[in-house]
């Protein structure tokens, strides 16, 4: 079971369970509901909650609807409690937010960037460092979602932007020269984006704080790179793919909640997709598993910036919409025009929906999911052309799949999924006896 043997360990385990239940329930469950759901004795729950309030992890408010008798309390985030800093780095802009226990999001900044690793991650790093300074010990960790495959917890490739093996923790903690340098497209500078030999930099550039040449490689996905040491932030960093994070959020707070096998597809400039099993997106051996978009599911022959031929993602998303409308596409540019095409061009929307449906059919044949969820542009695409999509899928489904096809739905989280998934990755590590132990050590 949990392996807790001493009463101290059991208490630490129950503290983490209770906080996790508050978080997963969106800070809406009353204390008595939580007590019942977790199978705790009433007295035990009272002592636990009192301790968590004292440690500034929880704060109780009276429930809105009161019956007779003693008022019911709803445990929620403490006003000086832990925060996850979460960022969604898209191909043309990033968004940074502070997230409380329970999942409430406060957007701190949205900033367009120039498409270079330094322009995107350097400016985000500065904003993160400033927020870390401002919020102090309240920052439990940082989660960063990126629009490309992420390997070994921090190395990202974004083919449309010519990012190759970009070392995300390094760039987030390397001070920027001002103004940011680097022309768009010329991003292959090995000094900052490449990973040299066993170390992190062999070009005479300063190494990131707390990490020396020859340091061990970044930990595998799911573990954190700690941005610590002198000049560092001293908090865990979780870097992940936007589709995988959107899928994680969908499994925790969206339409894949309680689904054993689900398929999540995130549509932005192109398409990402991942299988979600028992609430977890399948990450692959090195963490870059969320890449159904790079399978030749629609029979096309178009070369994809990823290096493969005929990828599904060349047929779905903002780039494909722009191409169908005869507009310039690629390079993470043209979001507003693509949105206009999505709203006005039935032809471009139908072509996207047909490609989406045909690819979904292939994946449904392979994986037998209970549900298929769509986020990003996928929500609007499905609203506008769900019938076309389903009709396109039908002939490509195996007969046994056609009898009871999975439900297909737009995400209720819309564009927020990647950011929320980045938040969940931080709280997954924090809401453990070890994470909470560090909080107790760090609170003033
Ligand atoms: Zn591809």
Broad shape? globular
Binned, the helix content reads: 25-40%
Which structural class do the helices and strands define? alpha/beta
Number of domains: 3
CATH third-tier fold name of the largest domain: Nucleotidyltransferase, domain 5
Unreliable stretches covering 5 or more consecutive residues:
181-224
Separation of the first and last Cα atoms: 34 Å
The largest sheet, given as strand count, sense and whether it forms a barrel, is:
6 strands, mixed
Give the percentage of residues in beta strands.
Answer: 15-25%
Family: Belongs to the ROK (NagC/XylR) family.
InterPro entries: ATPase_NBD, ROK, WH-like_DNA-bd_sf, WH_DNA-bd_sf
Organism: Nonomuraea wenchangensis
Pfam family, one: ROK
């Amino acid at each position: 079971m949990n392996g807790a043997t001493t009463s101290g360990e059991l208490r630490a385990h129950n503290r983490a369970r209770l906080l996790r239940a508050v978080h997963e329930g969106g800070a809406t469950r009353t204390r008595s509901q939580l007590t019942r759901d977790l199978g705790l004795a009433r007295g035990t729950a009272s002592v636990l909650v009192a301790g968590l309030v004292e440690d500034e992890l929880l704060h109780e408010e009276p429930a809105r609807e009161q019956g007779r008798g003693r008022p019911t309390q709803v445990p929620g985030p403490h006003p000086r409690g832990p925060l996850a800093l979460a960022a969604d780095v898209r191909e043309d802009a990033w968004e940074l937010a502070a997230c409380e226990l329970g999942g409430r999001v406060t957007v701190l900044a949205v900033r367009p960037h120039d498409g270079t690793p330094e322009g995107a991650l350097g400016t985000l790093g500065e904003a993160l460092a400033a927020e870390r300074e401002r919020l102090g010990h309240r920052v439990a960790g940082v989660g960063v979602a990126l629009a490309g495959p992420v390997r070994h917890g921090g190395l990202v490739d974004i083919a449309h932007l010519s990012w190759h093996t970009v070392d995300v923790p390094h760039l987030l903690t390397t001070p920027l020269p001002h103004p940011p340098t680097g022309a768009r497209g010329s991003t292959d500078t090995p000094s900052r984006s490449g990973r040299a030999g066993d170390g992190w930099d062999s070009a005479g550039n300063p190494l990131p704080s707390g990490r020396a040449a020859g340091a061990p490689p970044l930990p595998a996905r799911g573990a954190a790179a700690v941005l610590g040491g002198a000049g560092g932030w001293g908090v865990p960093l979780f870097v992940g793919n936007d589709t995988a994070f959107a899928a994680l959020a969908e499994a925790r707070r969206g339409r894949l909640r309680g689904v054993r096998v689900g398929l999540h597809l995130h549509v932005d400039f192109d398409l990402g997709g991942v299988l979600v099993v028992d609430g977890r997106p399948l990450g692959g051996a090195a963490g870059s598993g969320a890449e159904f978009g790079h399978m030749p599911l629609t029979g096309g022959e178009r070369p994809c910036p990823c290096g493969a031929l005929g990828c599904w993602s060349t047929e779905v998303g903002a780039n494909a919409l722009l191409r169908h409308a005869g507009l310039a596409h690629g390079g993470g540019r043209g979001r507003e025009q693509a949105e206009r095409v999505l709203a006005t061009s039935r032809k471009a929307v139908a072509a996207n929906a047909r490609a989406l449906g045909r690819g979904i059919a292939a994946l449904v044949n392979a994986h037998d999911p209970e549900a298929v969820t769509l986020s990003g542009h996928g929500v609007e695409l499905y609203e506008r052309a769900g019938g076309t999509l389903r009709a396109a899928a039908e002939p490509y489904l195996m007969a046994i799949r056609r009898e009871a096809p999975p439900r297909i739905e737009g995400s209720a989280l819309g564009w927020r999924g990647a950011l929320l998934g980045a938040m969940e990755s931080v709280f997954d590590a924090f809401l453990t006896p070890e994470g909470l132990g560090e909080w107790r050590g760090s609170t003033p």
